[in-house]
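sanity check this chain:
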Amino acid sequence: MARPAFALVLSTDQYDADALAAAVTSQLPGVPWAGCCTAGVFAGSRLLRQGLVVGLVASETVRVGVGVAQPVSQDGRRAGVLAASRALEAFPSSVAPGWSRALIVLPDAVTGNAADVVRGAVEVGGTGVVWAGGGAGDNLRFVRTAQFAGGRAYSDSVVVVAIDSPARMATGIRHGFRPYGPPTMVTRAEGTVLAELEYEGAFSVYQRTARARGDQVNIDGFATFAMTHPLGIPQADGEHVIRDPLRVVSPGGLYCVGEVPDGCLIRVMEGDPIGLVGAAREAATTAREAVAGPIAGAFVFDCISRCMMLGDTVRDELTTFESELGESVPVMGCLTFGEVGTLGRGVPQFHNKTAVVLALGA
């Protein structure tokens, strides 16, 4: 049997992070491992709201590096640079011919600007590699998350895992939302708060867009409506990066999961369970076809808000990942607070309400 080269460990947030790190290290002696806590974990189609999943990569040839840096709350971009640099410090500067390189980014998505963290990591890792990952989270309390690396638990941190493999690795990334309103220019944004659209309060413009489609939205009902009507940032190839607006903040701005850049265009989007499950199928199929050969396993980073939209039918999405990758392919993953990946022909970014599938070739 091939040696254990790396373990990805994903847990929910009900455990003492330091005790969990010590317990995992004792059970994986000598095995590099990393991970984070999230709002839910799954193995195959079994979803756990409290639990732990471990994915072991066994190989005589795979090279793995793990880096961690903090605090993301003060300088997310620098933390991303440092974590990626530490993960890649023993790697060759370029990927060997015929090999594949993947970087998994696991930032604290509660304390800092995860989009800035991803930019920092990409500054080091470049765009010619496979990117995946997602934001660490808790059970929607937005209080404290844990990141794991080097046998220890951290918070307000980002963990980056670098993997070089002679087998092909590939990702598929989809969200399943479609445009609902016209493009509008962001005229003022402050980090994760979208303050103004076309020099008017962002919530007022959002309301007017909904009204034009026959939907009435007030502040009390905003969170429920926005769950199925997030924001989308148009990309050059026609794709949209999703931003999830959580609440209205004074004086009429929208607080989002992830930053909205000043000067960009943005649209109100809409989605439904059928579209979300279809997107999961496309993400898994894209990853499988890009590997173009046998798949040893897959890591899935699936947004917690997708699970909330799907409700009891979330199992349909998890089953879809399994069936599209192959019934014999082991699949594990988590419910993240934002996702990391490259949509279409763009650059790696931080996404919301999106499914990212990282397939590892055999």
Summary: Residues 68 and 159 are 4 Å apart (CA to CA). The longest strand covers residues 240-249. The chain has eight helices and 25 strands. The mean pLDDT is 95.
